[in-house]
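Anyone? Bumping this.
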Amino acid sequence: MSPKTLYDKIWDAHVAHEAEDGTCLLYIDRHLVHEVTSPQAFEGLRMSGRKVHAPDKTIAVPDHNVPTTAGRDDPSQMTEDSRIQVEALDKNAKEFGVHYYPVSDIRQGIVHIVGPEQGWTLPGMTVVCGDSHTATHGAFGALAHGIGTSEVEHVLATQTLIQKKSKNMKVEITGQLRPGVTAKDITLSVIGHTGTGGGTGYVIEYCGEAIRALSMEGRMTVCNMAIEGGARAGLIAPDETTYEYVKGRPHAPKGAQWEAALNWWKTLYSDDDAHWDMVITIKGEDIAPVVTWGTSPEDVLPITEVVPAPESFKGGKVEAARRSIEYMGLTAGQKLSDIEIDTVFIGSCTNGRIEDLRAAAAILKGKKVKDGMRAMVVPGSGLVRAQAEEEGLADIFKEAGFEWRLAGCSMCLAMNPDQLAEGERCASTSNRNFEGRQGYKGRTHLVSPAMAAAAAITGKLTDVREMM
Amino acid sequence: MEKFDKLTGIAAPMPLVNIDTDMIIPKVFLKTIKRSGLGVNLFDEMRYDRQGNEIEDFVLNKPAYREAKIIVAGDNFGCGSSREHAPWALADFGIRCVISTSFADIFYNNCFKNGILPIVLPQEDVDKLMDDAERGANAVVTVDLEAQEITGPDGGKVTFDLDPFKKHCLLNGLDDIGLTMEKAASIESFEAKASQERPWV
């Protein structure tokens, strides 16, 4: 048998039909659904008299629009259009009989945090969702990617996707990370290396000693931003860390099925002599705590650097960099650690898990947020929130001056009331620094949770290593 | 879905690289449960000021490009989120074809579900078409899907590659779900086999 990559193996195990031209019907094991990209898909089913093919493999949760403030069960907290979307999901979940975690359920949260937490996401699966950050689930060695609403409807109706296979890219992070460097710094540094279009047409497998050393939370952070590098999906081969995380979760296999599953999962790795279409190797010790300076995730530099000159780029990037620097209100040559901020956001499917909150709280313990700063923590799920309260992290955040919110996507994309005002500048643990992403004319600097905590204390982008 | 065979129209130049889906349709317009009516908000934050007045400099506000059917764009067009609202907004405005050196994967796939043809060309061809698109009312370009050929205002021709299956669906306006349902037997036999091999799924 010819050697295969992990992606090849998962792909081959899910091809339900292959046409002569290589177009495949890929079977989908888990379909995650949220309120923003699904109403038109359910409506499409209704119009054509179709049913959901596999409701037991379909999991819905509202996350993008939901308020994160107390008393949010009161629909008047939402704008009318947000409320209509959430109510549409309620109605569709009931009508079509899919698994559902409503806002009132403690298990509600960001769809990409709820899936793994509840054991829906397992190694070797195919997972899709009408959301680009579905790449997150690749941390389990699951082939996971975002789809559009027409494809959501297609998966609802047939439990398959029409796909052609992507190419294989290996991203190896060798050695160990230095103190103060996290999974977020790895994934941003890789994007800095490849550019936001560098992964287009590929599925990335992250490997190497520094990746192996990461917890599942860290691995999810790395894979989450594979899409920001343009890749269809990011993958990390499952290992003991993965099995340990999955075991005992509500929807994970049990007893004899666990043993059978484990036997298969242990075959899910890239063979030594597998073919790679592209290989990138980065030394773990070369990665520094990073921040973004522009309006694309590829605009990333170590915190010790300065805002670059647009002329230092090539081609169309020169104009894009000029536009970014103007939008961000910065000057070429300005030290990144001199950039003053007024808002800190800790949360999102990138960095809203328990380990992220622990990392931020470790920096904040016994310290105060700088006067005048608006700082908020939005846990990724109700269960992450409860655990953080139990561990005393919530008290650390509150005593430091952070708002302690309820779970949702919140200011990552600002579809709910949590938004930046015009000109406000945020150190954010989210995944996109696009123009207007966190609010009209808002300015976003992407950072790790520890870096966000450090910035909250000093009021400017700060090298967290100075606080350790 | 609307068929796509031959399209002739004004091509608008948007040379900026990495035009993301938040630029194409900002999130405030995602709070809809319909697919229609998004054209008025296409490129909203680039196209209007905070008071809702048109920004004169923006290409689609210029008299020559208000009826544009084609966009010639910088590299990595459509990066960012999976929102199909981006192609919905483009189609609703009247854009049926986008030409660039590369597209983000999800956006690219979403286009075909909505009768929009995304065309990938080498840099030199995009540069030439970008020059053509700068000609305002004279930037008339014809895209022939059957022949996989673009004709510029001077009559110069450029050919492009396309996946045969995607071409077939777009030419005939085919509904993917209907096509897949014809393969229901394959899906059922896959499910039977998979439930034996991986019963925990």
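Late reply, but here is one note on the structure posted above: Chain B touches chain A through 57 residues (CB under 8 Å).
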